[in-house]
Amino acid sequence: MTQESTDTPQQGITRKDDQAKLALGIDLGGTNIQAGVINEFGEVLGRAKIKTEADGGFNSVMDRIAAAAREACDDARVPMSTIHTAGLGVPGPIDPEKGIVIEAVNLRWNDAPVVMALSDRLGVPVYADNDVNVAVYGEWRAGIGDQTPNMLGVWVGTGVGGGLIINSQLHRGAHYSAGEIGHMILYPGAHLGSRSVEHNCSRTAIAHELVKLIRSNHSSMVTSMTDGKLHKIKSKVLAMAYEQGDDLVRTVVNDAADRLGIAIASTVTLLSLDKVVLGGGLVHAIGKPMVDIVRDSVRREVFPESLRNVSVEASILGDDAGLVGAGLIAFEELWK
Question: Which of 13, 131, 219, 261: CA 20 to 30 A from 159?
Answer without folding.
Answer: 219
